[in-house]
Design brief:
This protein is an alpha+beta fold and about 475 residues long. It is built from 14 helices and 16 strands. It has two domains: about 100 residues, OB fold (Dihydrolipoamide Acetyltransferase, E2P); about 300 residues, BirA Bifunctional Protein, domain 2. The protein binds adenosine-5'-triphosphate and manganese (II) ion.
């Protein structure tokens, strides 16, 4: 009963006169005759023509926007414009009705904000079906890239017993009764009574575990969900997001930058090849959206031109120190236009500074390296100057930071000194330090925020619109 041809396959490969069975959801039904049918396999709707004079009026009434139907009929050349073929139905069956009086999705433009509230139904719109198909292709491209290079895909744990990296911004995992927490003699919560016999959290990053694997398998990557309870209500932050974290033994910062730039370009290339129709649609959507904005806030390049531009130009590489000089002497800094003026070396870069460098000064993706150690994590390799670390951030137009990475500190004594300086409890991290005790070697890695990549590629402007069910402060719907 359910053997059918997908609309994508049919449009790509048909013979006039062949009989087909198609199934999907009605987008519109015009003149009691023309069904625009979509099954999600492709953006384009298939036109199914109903012989309304010989069809039961009761059945016709049930063919409404949102209804699921099956149609069997002959493939014919289309009379109308806009499509090469249509299906002349000899049989239409309604698999699931959809009452138009209460169905929230009408065949008209809905705002992205409204659609976010009905995220369970937004897959059925052109915009979101395109976004999620592109998201899929990006995920596949990432696995393909690493697989072709011989990396091992490593599943890092979601529940973690280590809180070295995320102190303060982690979600606790517990089965202890919240209304009567067991206490120790000194009055603290007794985590020995908890499910794992200790305090546990959701992971903020798979990096430390990936390092353990890299120091044996030499090239690994993780691709999984990560969780941060940071209270950032921005269009670039989620509380639950997916991260890609490669970790490579026998590699330095230059290798790391080359790997990250290679990965990003591979992904852009992949979607340009496999998501043509969806990207074209998303490009038009973005143009329409930007018409509402003042001229100076519009992108100066169409979506696909922007992707092509990033693909064909080497990313600009410079040090944090060089970037600070540029920012200090920049017009917005001198005119007091930055919300956080750049005064001295050591300042953490805000999104406004990152975007100035990328969008105004260089006009292309930028890789910043060698940040002050004070503003970076303990595991980054200390430079000879004792002041900066071998960190790198990749900054993208419209996005800001998309990748954060570093060469890792492989020297046991230097690492321990840094951890002490930063009050990281050494006792709890012995398993991590063992990598430096037993056959340590230079290694490097980075984290790529998957949703930030999807955001960039699709031209969507809010990160909540590129993950099916976004989690952010005050919201965990569905
Ligand atoms: P930001 O400064 O933008 O908050 P970060 O420095 O905290 O990011 P890292 O810890 O370096 O980020 O994480 C690596 C990558 O993960 C970032 O480059 C970014 O692409 C992504 N990322 C980080 N936090 C989030 C978040 N809350 N939501 C979505 N993606 C994120
Ligand atoms: Mn970072």
């Amino acid at each position: 009963m359910f053997s059918r041809v997908k609309i994508k396959e049919l449009l790509a490969n048909y013979t006039i006169g062949q009989e087909v069975t198609v199934m999907g959801w009605v987008r519109t039904f015009r003149n009691n005759q023309f069904i625009a049918l979509n099954d999600g396999s492709v953006l384009t709707n298939l036109q199914v023509v109903v012989d309304f004079e010989n069809t039961d009026p009761e059945l016709l009434k049930k063919i409404t926007t949102g209804a699921a139907i099956k149609a069997v009929g002959e493939v014919i050349a289309s009379q109308g414009k806009g499509q090469a073929i249509e299906v002349k139905a000899r049989l239409v069956e309604v698999l699931g009705v959809c009452d138009p009086e209460v169905y929230p999705l009408q065949p008209k433009k809905h705002s992205l904000e409204f659609l976010r509230e009905i995220a369970h139904l937004r897959f059925r719109t052109n915009t979101f079906s395109a976004v999620f198909r592109v998201r899929h292709h990006l995920a596949m491209a990432i696995h393909q890239f690493f697989h072709e290079k011989g990396f091992v895909y490593m599943h890092s744990p979601i529940v973690t017993g280590s809180d070295a990296e995320g102190a303060g911004e982690m979600f606790r995992v517990t089965t202890l009764p919240l209304d009567k927490l067991p206490k120790t003699e000194s009055g603290d919560i007794d985590f020995k009574k908890d499910f794992f016999g200790k305090s546990t959290n959701l992971t903020v990053s798979g990096q430390l575990e990936a390092e353990l694997a890299a120091l044996a398998l030499s090239e690994v990557y993780t691709f999984g969900p990560t969780f941060r309870a940071e209270n950032s209500n921005t269009s670039r932050h989620l509380a639950e997001f997916w991260m890609i974290e490669p970790e490579v033994a026998f590699a330095d910062l230059k290798d790391n930058m080359d790997l990250a730039e290679g990965l990003l370009k591979y992904c852009l290339n992949h979607v340009m090849e496999f998501c043509k129709e969806d990207l074209e649609f998303l490009e038009t959507r973005l143009l329409e959206e930007e018409k509402q904005k003042p001229q100076n806030e519009r992108s100066d390049m169409a979506l696909r031109d922007k992707l092509r531009f990033c693909l064909s130009n080497p990313f600009q590489r410079l040090t944090y120190t060089e970037a600070i000089d540029i920012l200090k002497n920049s017009t917005p800094n001198k005119k007091g236009k930055f919300q956080y003026p750049i005064e001295a070396w050591g300042a953490d870069l805000q999104s406004e500074h990152e975007r100035y460098l990328v969008e105004k000064h260089f006009g292309k993706p930028v890789i910043l390296t060698d940040y002050p150690k004070q503003i970076k994590a303990f595991y980054m390799r200390l430079n000879e100057d004792n002041n900066t670390v071998r960190a790198m951030d990749i900054l993208f137009p419209g996005i800001g930071e998309i990748v954060g990475g570093s060469q890792r500190e492989e020297r046991l004594d230097v690492l321990m000194a840094r951890m002490e300086e930063m009050h990281i409890p050494l006792e709890e991290m012995q398993w991590f330090l063992d990598t430096r005790r037993f056959g340590t070697c230079p290694h490097a890695g980075f984290g790529l925020g998957f949703e930030r990549l999807v955001l960039f590629v699709t031209g969507m402007t809010n990160i909540r619109d590129v993950i099916p069910f976004p989690r952010f402060p005050g919201s965990a719907e569905f």
